[in-house]
Request: fold
Amino acid sequence: LNGLSDTINPHQMLFGINQGGVYGDIRIENAKRISELNLDGYAIGGLAVGESHEQMYNIIEDVVPHLPKNKPVYLMGVGTPANILNAVERGVDFFDCVYPTRNGRHGHAYTNHGNLLNARFEKDMRPIEEGCTCPACRTYSRAYIRHLLKAKETLGLRLMVLHNLSFYNRLMAEIREAIENHRFKEYKE
Reply:
């Protein structure tokens, strides 16, 4: 498609997707086969669909060594902060996940201090997360966002999504910085 004159995006990247459930032997064979295709990158798919975190991490450990070292590895549909840290440790480069947006739409903010619906935040004039530069934290207090959530105002949910996306972007930037400074293990802990 990239070579056709009417292709809308002639620089699309094509990734091979590794599949095979929780069966390491099938996954490894698949990884070897798709690696022969010399694609732009490689994805690990079909995880986070009911298996345990430990099974997911074992599959990543099985698969990554059989993918090209000079190509990006993408873990599809996985992305709690703990999952991201554990997958990066095993060689994954990037992710996609509904958690920051879906959880935001349900009133959950990724923070280090708890759920904003808790009564203790009723009069808390601090931002959702101290030091966060997202639009929600720059403009609104925990108390106001808590009020919006309790009143079921959609602005509260939108602010949570904005904050969560900022949280995830900051997490990934911090991971990159830790890797570049050879302190990822310390950062992860």
Q: What stands out?
A: The beta strands are 15-18, 41-44, 73-75, 94-95. The chain has a mean pLDDT of 92. Residues 154-180 form the longest helix (27 residues). The first strand starts at residue 15 and ends at 18.
